[in-house]
Amino acid sequence: MDSILVKGNGALNGVIPIAGAKNACLALMPATLLSEEPLTLTNAPRLSDIATMTQLLQSLGAEVAGLQEGKVLALSSLGPINHVADYEIVRKMRASNLVLGPLLAREGHAVVSLPGGCAIGARPMDLHIHGLEALGAEIELKDGYLHAKAKGGKLRGAQMTLRMASVGATENIMMAATLAKGTTVINNAAREPEIVDLAQCLRKMGAQIDGEGSSRIEIQGVDRLGGATHQVVTDRIELGTYMLAPAICGGEVELLGGRMHLVAAFAEKLDQAGVSVTETEAGLKVSRKGGRIRAVDVTTEPFPGFPTDLQAQMMALLCTAEGTSVLEEKIFENRFMHAPELLRMGAQIEVHGGTATVKGVEKLRGARVMATDLRASVSLILAGLAAEGETVVSRVYHLDRGYERVEEKFRGIGAHIERIKA
Ligand code: UD1
């Protein structure tokens, strides 16, 4: 397995282009199953998770071609569709469960393995299941697979309230409801920009959707959907991650394609910590205001709150702050696995349940550390960039799931980073 070597070498300056959002693209791709006409996605990120979704859709009988070095995805589901999503592919990534709603809507039945993904908590699928059941699906778990069938062969619109504002459940139910008979209302729907992006694409395909971005989404079912071309929204998590580079090392970096509304809660915390974030024509410009980073308290919440997917990276920053910060993780129950690795670098962190107390130190020290999940991996790189000496992050395969050309992008702002091939 590859490792990444990072050397702390001072301020970082330059420009980084931000890719299309992994999490938006992973929801947009299965939308191809809802139509027999082509779906073209531009601004797609080049990541191993996208390759996994490609493989899954192909195994279902869809055609997926990567054009322009993978930045454009041409999808089509004209042919007969296989309704079984196999464990061997699904286990690699939780977002594979997003084929369930579209398959059920198109075929009237689906067999989808329960997914795998990052080991950051239990991440059950009850909300997806209850939502699809409300639309008239009968769902049974047999041998690790969900067997779903639409009663009478077709889903029917329904009103529902999600127990939690789950991103994946909102996406699955929204996609399924586009072809259901009648009106569906999802209350306590997730409000993430990726949901808005999916709704906008579905609307281009002919779906009737209202209220995306609010906690009440209404979908009027239609008989069929057509084709569309859609540009994937900017990746707010990649954006936030690179915003932390000048925050933790000093310097000034412009993130091309970044928009403030995608990271408002995060930018507000950076401001309190002593980092300036301004919107430019091309993106966001980030620099340290001068002096040491100040401690801030952070609680992760569904959008528009502080994203759980930036918690690990924010912790790396706060490890070097003046004072004590408290980070509360409210979305996932086991998402502090980066903390023991940061301790190896001289950080002072105490974890009790879902709360981490971080006492800032003047300087982190390079060490050998291990990446435990996608966002944890990049938090260790950020910490390494701010540390004295060399840091080697092993098990970086997680990183390639979510960050395209990560070394190149960091090197573009003057970071010393290289991949050590296994
Ligand atoms: C998505 C993102 C992930 C992000 C997460 C929260 C994708 C591909 N991934 O994941 O990067 O960290 O949103 O912002 O978009 N839950 C249930 N039952 C369910 C579904 C979820 O209890 O049926 C719980 C989960 O265990 C978790 C919380 O709800 O505690 C939020 O999960 P959810 O919003 O569904 O996350 P994902 O869609 O899996």
Please give a structural write-up:
This protein has a 4-stranded mixed β-sheet with strand order 22-23-1-24. A 4-stranded mixed β-sheet has the order 2-15-17-16. It folds into 2 domains: 3-19 and 234-420, Enolpyruvate transferase domain (UDP-n-acetylglucosamine1-carboxyvinyl-transferase, Chain, Alpha-beta prism), CATH 3.65.10.10; 22-231, Enolpyruvate transferase domain (UDP-n-acetylglucosamine1-carboxyvinyl-transferase, Chain, Alpha-beta prism). The N and C termini lie close together (5 Å). 30% of the residues lie in helices and 26% in strands. The protein is α/β, with parallel strands linked by helices and 422 residues long. The structure holds uridine-diphosphate-N-acetylglucosamine. The site of uridine-diphosphate-N-acetylglucosamine (UD1) has 23 residues, from helix 1, helix 5 and helix 6.
Q: Could you outline the blueprint of secondary structure elements for this entry?
A:
Blueprint: E1 3-7, E2 14-17, H1 22-28, E3 39-42, H2 48-59, E4 63-67, E5 72-76, E6 84-85, H3 87-90, H4 100-107, E7 109-113, H5 126-134, E8 137-142, E9 145-150, E10 159-161, H6 167-178, E11 183-187, H7 193-204, E12 208-210, E13 216-220, E14 228-231, H8 236-249, E15 252-256, H9 264-273, E16 275-279, E17 283-288, E18 298-299, H10 311-318, E19 324-328, H11 338-344, E20 348-352, E21 355-359, E22 368-370, H12 374-386, E23 390-394, H13 397-402, H14 406-411, E24 416-420
Parallel strand pairs: 2-15, 3-14, 6-7, 10-11, 18-19, 22-23
Antiparallel strand pairs: 1-23, 1-24, 3-5, 4-5, 7-9, 8-9, 11-13, 12-13, 15-17, 16-17, 19-21, 20-21
Helix pairs in contact: 1-7, 4-6, 5-6, 6-7, 8-10, 8-12, 10-12
